[in-house]
Every structure is written in structure tokens, then in C-alpha cells.
Amino acid sequence: MNSSHKILKRLEMFCGTGGVGKTTLAASRAIFYAKQKKKVLLITIDPSRRLKDFFAITDERAGTLEHVEVEDCKLDVLLMNPQETIRRFTNIDEVDETKGRRVLDILFRPYGGMNELMALMELYYRYQENIYDYIVLDTPPGPHFVDFLASTHKYKLFFHKSFVEIFDFIIGNKSFIFENLQEDSDKKVKEKGGLFAKIVASGIKKILFYFKKVTGESFLLEFIEALHFIYQFKDPFLAASRFQQDILQGDQGGLFLVTSVEQDKFSDALVLFKNSRQYLPQDFTLLVNKVFFSLEEERPTSDVKEIQQFYKLIEGREKKVLFLAKENFSSLKYFPEILTESPSEQLMNLLPSWD
Amino acid sequence: MLEQFHLFTGKGGVGKTLLSLAYAYHLTQMGKKVVHLSLEPNTSKFIDSLGIKEFSHRVLDLNESSFHYITRKLGKVVATLITHAPFYKAVFDMVPGMGHIVSLGQIIDYLDEEKETYFILDAPSSGHVLTMFQSLDFFGDIFSSGIIFNDIQKMKKTLQDQQRWKIHLISLPQSMPLQETKELATQIEQIFPHQYELIFNSCWSEVKELTEHQSSLHEHLAKKYQMEENLLKTIPSDSLRIPFILEEDPLKIIKEISLLFAKGENQ
Fold it and tell me: How confident is the model at residue A176 (pLDDT cuts 50, 70, 90)?
């Protein structure tokens, strides 16, 4: 057994609809652990990378691990950058334009098609490094979090063995295949037997023919080269998928759904919760952010009629969210609204709520 | 002349959907024919009560819209054949940018066919909407021929026309949303200069009742008011500021904001 040296890790995920304070609460959670002298990595896989606002990290540093210090608490922070992640796993820098570089650059941009997969691989890599006690994950808002959870299925389809095989073959025989894409060449290609016949029978030849009509031949060639490049790295991709299934289904994590009393969006949070459940069977803790009235010892009132009406409205909204929160979640925590211009002060002020 | 196509975007939670509906309602009140399209699942109930026409959601479903695109270009038989192939499905998921182009293309075709109809799009949040626009350039550069190449050229021409459309960039008077808005504005500026309008939603300092009785506010809320006011001093004064609406019912809020749009355009 060589697992005895393995540090006990916990992966905590923060999800929620937009603008509720996911990033803020994830960052405060990371500081909370750092303060206990735990080794913590805080990662955001949300391409908007709002985490940078708290730790004064510039976009140019995305993809590079930053060692930061906030009021004596040390932690590592990473703004995920798919372009940097793929560099670590592949030799993408050696790929030139004739080998599909332009298409690859599009696919690996933030918000490109590979964002979720790269997030998964980044997480897998950091987990394998085995140097952190805690990894805290800030995720993209709403349905994009579910996309991240569902990505395993999507990529399994993409990396299907038969596609990989056929694309290797097409690349190896591209001049013959491209010269004979039109329909009346079906017979000629089929006669060569083996995978040539399969390309005709599976309909892939036909699809390439129409693709060429829509996108032009040069794009199609670049696109096939790009797919071929990605297919070469199918093994690390698939290992990351297995990791996602193991870790997400396991019992090693904390799941936090964030909502805010400032927004009348509790129903959206519930939709997100329900859609995530099929991938994450564990219990979620609901974090209610920006609570004010319910945390005041003395309920604010005013003699001025207009102010009283204003209180009634915002207090009513807060109460409604808290009511629904209690109704739907057995595990929940409240976080006060912190008013400060200083990001680090904001994080420090939220710490007591984690105890 | 009012632009025919209005796109609402901004960070999550700033009120894109509500403001886009308010704008659509404002146009219907002016007697215009309006269609509204949203990514949000819960807008239909408002749309019905407001008497706005809902545009088919299928445009934003990347698989559906690619099917329609291929049908239009190559016929239904070919479209069915292509879009049902497992390989096509696997690959198409990987290239959301191409799907975006197709969706945008369908909207632009509609605008050309229905010149009298105004189109309000409650678009995805910041980064996603930016990718949609950038995709035109990225793919436009690589496609050198083919049907889609010509379509992209046509789309780019329409989008460069300042008379045709406008981006409404929504933010909140708080530092984090403002930061994201500034980043998005800088990037939009590079693609479509002078084609966006900045809107600050839910401003307390625009509420008469609060401004007049500011001193009576509880300490915490007074501080919040003050922080907001300080922040709004740092942004251009010509940006639109929507007050926090003292209402609970979303329909009433939408109607009240629509009156503000009407007022804004009369000035």
C-alpha cells in the first residue's frame, strides 16, 4: 500500500446563479482554511475570473499559480486558463497553421468549446500533485456549472474509439479522400475496402462532402487536423473523466450553493440545485449571502413613512428568501452584507460566519 | 430613427431580463411590432401579460439552429442526414462558436425579412456574448470559401451599421459588477465602437423617497447609499440610471421602467 502518504484532501465547490457572491464566499472559505495553517488552493474555472479582483491578479497571469498572502494567511490562487492547461498536457506550441493551429486556438480560448474539459484536467492535475489539504473551486454561474458537471458525457462521445481511428486514417489518406468526396465516387472509395469502406458506409464521407460545401475545403482540412491533434491525447482526457466521476460521486467534498437575499432568484437557484443533483448526489449546504435584517439585534425601524415602506419592501424580500431557504435545505449558513471598498477586509469580515 | 435590433447584456444578476422586457414593452406602447428572445426559462409568463411576441427559442438552441441553417442552405434531407450523425453531434458540441454564428445569422436574416419588426435580445452574460461576436472574426478569418463565408461577411456588414442595432450594457452601482462592465465595455469598444449604451440598474440614489430622507436611514443602509453615490460619481454622467423600484410585483416593475425608457428617448 502506498496510499498512506496521501494527504487527506477535500474538494469544495461553490455554485450559484450570477451575481450572488460565489466568488466572494469561495475566497473567504479558502482564507478560512489558510488561517488554520492548512495548505489551500483556490481555483476559479469561471472564464470571467472575478477572483482576480480580490487578489490583485492581472488577466495576463491567468493559468499561472499565484502565491498570495492576505493578512498573514498564505494560499495559492489560480485563474484557470484553458490555453495554459493544454500546454501542460500537449505540445500545442509546436503545431503550425497547416496542422490546424488556428482552429485549436479558437477551441482552447476561454469560453471556447474546451473550457469545461480543461477545467476538469486542471483540477485533476492539481489533485494529482497531492500537495494541498483543501482545494476550493469557484465555478461559472448557473447552467454553465451543470455543463461542467455534464462534460464527461460530452467528451466521451467526442473521444469515441471509432472516431479516433477513422480520423487517424483520414489524415493518413487525405489527398485521396478529399479528391473523392463527391457522391459519384462512393463506389471507387468503397472498393479499396477496410476503413475506406467504413468511411463511406458510416456516412462520414458524405458529411465531409457537405461540410466542404458549407465551410470550404481549407477550413475542413484545418479542422480535421485540429481534431486529429486533440485525439492524440485521448488517454489523459479519459483519465480526467474517470477522475471526475470518482471524485464528484465520492464523499470527499463539500458542496455549496450560494444565493443572495438581494435578488429575487431563489427559484433559479433551485433549478440549478435540481439539475446538479443527477451528477452530485451528496448534500448541498445553502449559503445565503448579504443578509441584513435577520442578523440585526434590533430590527431597524423609522418614523419616516417613506423609509418605513422601503424597509418593508427589502425586509420582505429577505424574509421570502430565508423562508424558502429553510423550506428547501436542512444545512444552511447566513452571511452578512459587508460594506467595504477593500477586498481583503471584505474577505476577513466574512470569516466568523464559517465557524 | 430607432435601431431595429437591441441586445441586452451584462454580468449575471444585474437585471438583463427585466430591463429587456421593459424596453420591449416600451416599444409596444409606442405602437411598434416587437419580438423578444430570452435565454431565461421563466420569461413566458411576463411576455404573455405584457402583450409582447416571443421569438422562437429554437434559435438559441445550437443543435436546432444548425439544423435550420443546413436545411435552408442544402435542404431538409441533407440537414437530417448530417445532424443525426453521431460524429456531427460529437463535434458540434465542441465548437459553440459556430453555433453562435448560425444563431446570430438567423436573427439577422429575420431582421432583413421583417424590416418593420423590432428585435429585443436578452443575451447571455458578458463573456458569452463577447465570444458570439468574436466568433465572427475568428471563423471569418479561417473560412476562405463556402456558403458560411459569404454569410459571415453579410452579418459583419449588418453589425457594423450603427443605424441597425444597439447594445445595452447593464451594470449595478457596486464595485464588482462595475469592474466587469468596464472590462466588457473595453472589449466591445474594440469590435463595435460607439454602439453601446451603459445602464446602471437599481440605483438607490435615483429614488426620490430615499434621497429626501437619506439621513433617516439605518447606519448600514446609509453607508450602502453613500458607497453607491460615490461610485456613480466616477462614471460618465450620460449613462442611463434606473432607480431601485419600490415595488414587489415584477410586472409593475417592468411597466415602471418602460416609462423611464420612454422619458429617456424623449429627451
Answer: very high
Cell numbers describing residue B111: 431582421
Which residue of A106, A207, A307 is in closest CB contact with B97? A106
Q: Taking the CA atoms of chain B, what radius of gyration do you get in angstroms?
A: 20
Number of structural domains found in chain B: 1
Domains of chain A (ranges, CATH numbers):
8-158+250-354 (3.40.50.300), 161-231 (no CATH)
Domain that holds residue B15: 5-264
B74/A214 CB distance under 8 A: yes
pLDDT for residue A2 is more than 50: no
Within 16-55 of A, beta carbons closer than 8 Å to B belong to 17-20, 24, 47-48, 50, 53
Q: In what order do the strands lie in the sheet with A73-79?
A: A66-70, A73-79, A40-44, A134-138, A10-16, A253-260, A284-291, A332-336
Residue B203 confidence (pLDDT) above 90: yes
**Helix or strand holding residue B204 (H, E):** none
pLDDT score for B92: 77
What ipTM describes this predicted complex? 0.93
Q: What is the pLDDT of residue A7?
A: 55
- CA distances from residue A352 to A28, A42, A335, B214 in whole angstroms, order as listed: 10, 19, 9, 30
pLDDT of residue A211: 87
CATH of the domain at B203: 3.40.50.300
